[in-house]
Write a structure and sequence with these properties.
Structural class of chain A: mainly alpha
GO molecular function (chain A): antiporter activity; NADH dehydrogenase (ubiquinone) activity
Order of helices and strands of chain A: HHEEHHHHHHHHHHHHHHHHHHH
Main location (chain A): membrane
Helix content of chain A: over 70%
Order of helices and strands of chain B: HHH
Family (chain A): Belongs to the CPA3 antiporters (TC 2.A.63) subunit D family.
Oligomer: heterodimer
Strand order of the largest sheet of chain A: 1-2
Number of helices of chain A: 21
Shape of chain B: elongated
Number of domains of chain A: 1
Largest sheet of chain B: none
Largest sheet of chain A: 2 strands, antiparallel
Number of strands of chain A: 2
Strand content of chain B: under 5%
Structural class of chain B: mainly alpha
Domain NADH:quinone oxidoreductase/Mrp antiporter transmembrane (chain A): 127-414
Shape of chain A: globular
Subcellular location (chain A): Cell membrane; Membrane
Distance between the termini of chain A: 10 Å
């Protein structure tokens, strides 16, 4: 029992509730900044506790599992919670300057806090129905965020976004109905025990496939066709929150269910995930190279990253699982950062077409070099953060003899590098284009972007130090009995 | 009883799917509402319909009903009510701004 597990949810929840009552913009900013910083501290404390004392659990209302609701912070959940708190904080500081008074007055900050509750709740819950509830908290906030502002394009795209997510939530409830009928529990640890007892036969494989469809819809793994439109519609800081956090929650759910619960019939699940990942990497990379406007290039890069993580999961060796954790952490920070920089770039150039930009390195050298460094990190150039995770995933793939996947992963890395360097070159080098006059760029964007970039560099340069934490997370994924013992011990 | 319920659930699912596949936005919203109704009944039925007393101490019954599916459904119903309400408002706002409720006309991008 450790009450600190619930702090990362309680802080943003209370902050969000308080924020609803303030219409004063300055007060809203102060409260949300304080809440974001406090939440980072709470998550860091939780990570440290998991490091020293092992997996932390909290039985809500003192009901012991399997009867009560349980919150579990293993190293994976705690690290992801810490990363999302950091990313959310940086996005908020960026939003203070860019989001505009209209959205601020209509409770942008409160919605952002509720989004944090949903995201971190999904990482820390130990019960699959609670995972659904946290998903819904996150999704409902994201519906509101994506439509906030009410532009025509936002309205049109959010209809599709909401429809897709409602249908996938319905399938999620249906798969839980089957799961409960088959196994009589929804506690993840107990589900794992029961699946091990009864064996993962045909019926459970159907449920596993159904859950895979649901989570892939949320993660953008192969079933990502809704993603480019809906992430392109809202302002770039909202897209940064979505790209950094929302898809990663889906990925986390896939990782958790398929390493813990449905890990007993790898002959069925692993090829499924592997081929979906290969499809996602290929199509995502082609999309990133094919388009010429900034949002779409960045959005298709999300799909490639999700595919790579899925491939690491399907390889399922210890190295690959470490790589999955490492790449997940890297990708949350790097994707949020690249969207923030992309938003800055589009404001500076006054257009989202890379063809109409040029010579911006004169005007904004800091932005240019930060964009370059982030692109290198995403493509996986050492010593930045993408390299270590990618290396571990490739190593795991080679150990498992999955050569096609490894080849696709490496080839798509090159395409990602191509798409981002081409964007960098056309936007920052060459002659300045005399297109539309550049809009005024708000000051104070440098600090949040630079701090995220510092984390990206730290994850790469300090890989040895980070690895102490990541290997703890990977160990729990590779040996699910650790998780089960920690939850069901008392 | 479970047998009749499963036929009802199947009917609700097919009606919901049919409505979601139509072109009118209003029908799509109604389709999601019906689909979620079907899935709630599914959750109820899969866990076994009522067969014993309420799960209270001192009831001394031979069998007790499992209360968990009902708690789950309650949560799920609340969520789907909220989402449906939001979807209706969104559909209305979208109709006001875009002057159409035809999904065919809502496709594509501004620039293509």
């Amino acid at each position: 029992m450790n009450n600190a597990v619930v702090l990362p949810l309680l802080i943003p929840l209370l902050a969000g509730v308080v924020l609803v009552f303030f219409s004063n913009v300055r007060a809203q900013r102060t409260i949300s900044a304080l809440a974001a910083l406090l939440n980072v501290a709470a998550c860091a404390y939780l990570v440290q506790q998991v490091r020293t004392d092992g997996i932390q659990t909290l039985y809500m209302g003192g009901w012991l599992p399997p009867f009560g609701i349980v919150f579990v912070a293993d190293m994976l959940g705690a690290l992801l919670a810490l990363t999302s708190a950091v990313v959310m904080g940086a996005c908020l500081f960026y939003a203070f300057r860019t989001i505009g008074e209209g959205r601020e007055r209509h409770h942008f900050y409160a919605l952002a806090q509720f989004l944090t509750v949903g995201v971190i709740g999904s990482f820390l819950t130990g019960d699959i129905f609670n995972l659904f509830v946290c998903f819904e908290v996150m999704l409902i906030s994201s519906y509101a965020l994506i439509v906030l502002g009410g532009e025509k394009r936002q309205l049109r795209e959010s209809i599709k976004y909401i429809l897709i997510n409602i249908v996938s939530s319905i399938l999620f409830v249906a798969s839980m109905a089957y799961l409960y009928a088959a196994l009589g529990t929804l506690n993840m640890a107990q589900l794992a025990v029961r699946v091990a007892e009864t064996g993962q036969g045909g019926g459970l494989n159907v449920v596993a496939a159904l859950l895979l469809v649901v989570f892939s819809l949320k993660a953008g793994l192969f079933l990502f066709f809704w993603l480019p439109g809906s992430y392109g519609a809202p302002p770039s800081v909202v897209a940064a929150m979505f790209g950094g956090l929302l898809t990663k929650v889906g990925v986390y759910a896939i990782v958790r269910t398929f390493t813990l619960i449905f890990a007993y019939d790898p002959g069925f699940t692993q090829p499924l995930i592997e081929w979906m990942s290969i499809g996602a990497m290929t199509l995502g990379a082609l999309g990133a190279v094919a388009y010429r406007d900034v949002p779409r290039i960045l959005i298709y890069n999300i799909v490639v990253a999700v595919g790579l993580i899925g491939f690491g999961l399907s390889a399922a060796t210890e190295a690959a699982l470490d790589g999955v954790v490492f790449y997940l952490l890297h990708d949350m920070v790097a994707k949020a950062l690249v969207f923030l920089l992309g938003g800055w770039l589009m404001t500076l150039a006054g257009t989202d077409r890379s063809g109409r930009m040029g010579g911006l390195i004169e005007k904004a050298p800091a932005l240019g070099w930060m964009f370059f460094a982030t692109g290198m990190a995403i493509a996986g150039v050492p010593p930045l953060s993408g390299f270590v995770g990618k290396l571990l995933i490739v190593q795991g793939g080679l150990e498992g003899g999955r050569y096609i996947g490894v080849a696709v992963a490496l080839a798509t890395s090159l395409l990602v590098l191509l798409s981002l360097t081409r964007l960098f070159m056309s936007a920052f080098w060459g002659e300045p284009k005399s297109g539309e006059p550049a809009s005024v760029v708000p000051s104070g964007l440098l600090a949040p972007c630079a701090s995220l970039l510092a984390i990206v560099a730290l994850l790469g340069v300090g890989a040895e130090w980070v690895n102490a934490y990541v290997s703890l997370a990977g160990e729990v994924l590779a040996r699910p009995e650790l998780y089960i013992e920690a939850v069901l011990k008392e | 009883m479970e047998f009749i319920m499963s036929i009802l659930i199947g009917a609700l699912f097919s009606v919901g799917t049919y409505l979601i596949l139509s072109r009118s936005l209003l029908r799509i919203v109604l389709g999601t509402a019906i689909l979620s109704h079907g899935v709630h009944l599914l959750l109820m039925t899969m866990a076994g319909l009522k067969r014993g007393a309420a799960p209270l101490l001192g009831e001394e019954a031979g069998a007790y009903t499992d209360p968990l599916p009902q708690a789950l459904i309650l949560t799920s119903i609340v969520i789907s009510f909220g989402v449906t309400a939001f979807f209706f408002v969104l559909a209305y706002r979208a109709y006001q701004e875009l002057r159409t409720d035809d999904m065919e006309l809502l496709r594509g991008d501004d620039d293509e």
